[in-house]
Design goal:
164 residues; alpha+beta; 4-stranded antiparallel sheet; 3-stranded antiparallel sheet; 16% strand
Length: 164
């Protein structure tokens, strides 16, 4: 069937709608949600703040931005210092921290934190992240340490687009 016959049979409006949908379909892939965390290589990745090796995944953090290499941090405190230092983040950036107990990546704005001097972190900031309050409260240091939310840890630096 020719295009002329299809237009005659259906009219112009359905064809224009179909054409518009086909043209906009590739753009739907560009409107994806926040970036996913990158895999950490504890043998080769270095902290974007202090330049030390990110050798222990329990204390790691990262910033992921569309079209950029991920920026890793060896200590939640290094991430905090980096953000408070006025380093601009690209639009669509996502910030993740590793769970101290599981090493799974958690959006920094959704994690809960514990600060206790008895927990030795790579750079001595003493912050550790957990997926939820139950995970944090099961840690022995939770009895004496400061229980913090993301807003308290990143008071001056967590980007609004990734905080809740």
């Amino acid at each position: 069937m020719s295009l002329h016959r299809i237009v005659a049979r259906l009219g112009v409006r359905p064809l224009l709608t179909l054409t518009a949908c086909v043209m906009l379909l590739p753009l739907a892939g560009c409107a994806s949600s926040r970036p996913s965390p990158a895999a950490l290589d504890t043998r080769n990745d270095v902290c974007s703040h202090c330049r030390m090796a990110v050798s222990d995944a329990r204390f790691a953090a990262q910033i992921v931005a569309p079209g950029e290499e991920p920026r890793f941090f060896d200590d939640v405190g290094c991430l905090r210092a980096y953000l408070e230092g006025g380093n601009a983040l690209a639009p669509g950036s996502a910030v993740f921290v590793a769970s101290y107990q599981t090493r799974a990546w958690i959006p920094a704005s959704e994690a809960v934190y514990l600060k206790d001097e008895s927990i030795e972190t790579p750079m001595g900031f003493h912050y550790v992240a957990f997926a939820d309050a139950a995970e944090r409260d099961s840690h022995p240091a939770a009895r004496s340490g400061a229980k913090l939310g993301a807003a308290e840890v990143f008071s001056a630096g967590l980007p609004r687009e990734v905080s809740r």
